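Hi R.,

As promised on Friday, here is the backbone we talked about, encoded as structure tokens. Could you run it through your design pipeline when you get a chance and send me back a sequence?
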């Protein structure tokens, strides 16, 4: 009469095969998750940079004059008195916009973040390219995404360069 069951060698082979499959599966799932997080960070940084660039260009086009311009601070005179002056600047690593108050740019009454708390604006530089009657501002933004774990492979950084011309007189 034959006994049914597994020999010790067969049992060890099954355990080894299952261990190998489990290891490969865990590695694959970890790799897919890591790639997904990296792509999400890149998309958010790209979206934030594009949004910030479009907003700066729109504010410049809607202005009536350049009130003051520093390397990382732009103050615009606006036609709409409720939005006069409008200031675009960096504060605590975030791009901000402020308007109203009718006085100096540093005293704007309504100040809002233009970037989320997950983004860090490393630099925001403005250059006055105005000549004669043409009033132009060139700007460069460097923005990066923050991750909760601060893993280097999940950090993404991008530069956006743009310009705007004041259209109203």
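Update: got your reply. Pasting your designed sequence below so it's all in one thread:
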């Amino acid at each position: 009469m034959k006994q049914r069951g597994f020999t010790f060698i067969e049992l060890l082979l099954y355990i080894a095969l299952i261990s190998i499959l489990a290891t490969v599966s865990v590695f694959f799932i970890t790799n897919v998750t890591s790639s997904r997080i990296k792509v999400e960070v890149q998309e958010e940084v790209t979206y934030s940079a594009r949004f910030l660039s479009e907003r700066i260009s729109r504010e410049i086009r809607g202005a009536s004059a350049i009130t003051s311009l520093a390397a990382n601070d732009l103050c615009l005179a606006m036609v709409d008195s409720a939005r006069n002056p409008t200031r675009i600047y960096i504060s605590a690593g975030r791009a901000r916009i402020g308007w109203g108050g009718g006085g100096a740019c540093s005293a704007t009454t309504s100040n809002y973040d233009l970037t989320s708390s997950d983004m860090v604006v490393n630099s925001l530089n403005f250059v006055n390219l105005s000549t004669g009657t043409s009033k132009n501002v060139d700007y460069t933004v460097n923005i990066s995404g923050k991750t909760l774990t601060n893993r280097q492979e999940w950090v993404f950084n991008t530069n956006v360069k743009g310009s705007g011309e004041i259209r109203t007189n």
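One thing I noticed while checking it: Residues 8-165 form one domain.

Thanks again,
M.
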